[in-house]
Amino acid sequence: MDNEKAWFVRRIVLSVLFVVIVAVPLYPELYGLDEVTPFAQLVAFRPQGLVLVFVLALLMLIRKGWRIAAGLVAVLALIGAGLTLPRVLSDPKTPAADTRVLTIMVANVLGGGANAGAVAELIRERKPDLVSLPEAQVDVREEIRAQLVGYAGYTEQPTRAVESATSVLVAASLGAVQVKADLPTTFGNLMVTGGNLGQLRLVAYHGFPPLPEDVPPWKHDLTQLRRWCAQDPPTIVAGDFNATLDHADFRWAMASNCHSVAPSVGGGFKGTWPSDQPPIARTQIDHVLATRTLRPLRFATYEIKGTDHLAVIATVAVPKG
């Protein structure tokens, strides 16, 4: 009997230790490791990791001695699923009568690799009010604008002619807006204000990626994002954030006063990168964020040839006046 008790206790202890180890890549923030390579990169694919861990638990049930651990691992995966499923449970909204709708497009053009004609065609089809173009170098930026000459009065405003520049296209319907290069972020960003936007401001954004040797600039850019969310003017930030809802730093940046359009309307699992992989292997790093007074309405993704990102188009309801 004593041997059976000792065996059972040993199994419990080993099973708990195993679950703790399995939880490290899934929830590195619990261990203070979410800003450490490789966990900062792996956590971007947490939903896929939860599926793999659940499959692992099912396979472990085959061995009698592993069943305690299998049960604990399954519970870990199910808790994670419960925390992430709300991202796909919300429905697209209908704008209220006292609001106006703004359509925002994001297309990372991969430093000029994207097909300019395909970008322009999507703009013509969806008619966004603002287009955020991360990595839009001079050549592709001008080519996209040339494709739109005579159509809807789009104008372009580059930050600077560097490898990872950000540009915006602004529809004439927004009126005489002002576009300024605001450069507190690593790649720079553009802020659009005035005209028919009223008190609203639009930020075209490109965040630094959490590369193994460059996590600090990634965190720095997300800190600036938190400042925009916390400030008084109603704000929309659109671009390639190089961060997902599974990054604690990204959630922290939004927590002050922002929400992401995609999970707010049931699109939280629509991966945007890498576009050359099947949907199940993608993660969502391209976002449209809005402060709480703005109501998310819809979110969709579109393929564009020549880039490793899907384009994003989101609509947001803005109070009139």
Quick take:
The chain has 321 residues and is an alpha+beta fold. Helices cover 35% and strands 22% of the residues. The strands form two sheets. It has a six-stranded mixed sheet with strand order 3-4-2-1-12-11.
Describe this structure in words.
This protein has 321 residues and is of the alpha+beta class. The chain contains nine helices and twelve strands. The strands form two sheets. A six-stranded mixed beta sheet has the order 3-4-2-1-12-11. The protein has a six-stranded mixed beta sheet with strand order 5-6-7-8-10-9. Helix 1 (2-26) runs parallel beside helix 4 and helix 5 packs across helix 6. The protein is elongated, with a radius of gyration of 22 Å. It starts with a helix and ends with a strand. The model is unreliable at 158-163 (pLDDT under 50).
Task: Give me some keywords for this one.
alpha+beta, 6-stranded mixed β-sheet, 22% strand
Biggest sheet details: 6 strands, mixed
Strand content: 15-25%
Report low-confidence residues grouped into runs of 5 or more: 158-163
Q: How many DSSP helices? A: 9
Share of helix, binned: 25-40%
- How many distinct beta strands? 12
Q: Secondary-structure blueprint of this entry?
A:
Layout: H1 2-26, H2 39-42, H3 46-60, H4 67-84, E1 99-106, H5 116-126, E2 130-134, H6 138-147, E3 155-158, E4 166-170, E5 177-182, E6 189-194, E7 201-206, H7 215-230, E8 235-240, H8 248-255, E9 258-260, H9 261-264, E10 286-291, E11 295-302, E12 311-319
Parallel strand pairs: 1-2, 7-8
Antiparallel strand pairs: 1-12, 2-4, 3-4, 5-6, 6-7, 8-10, 9-10, 11-12
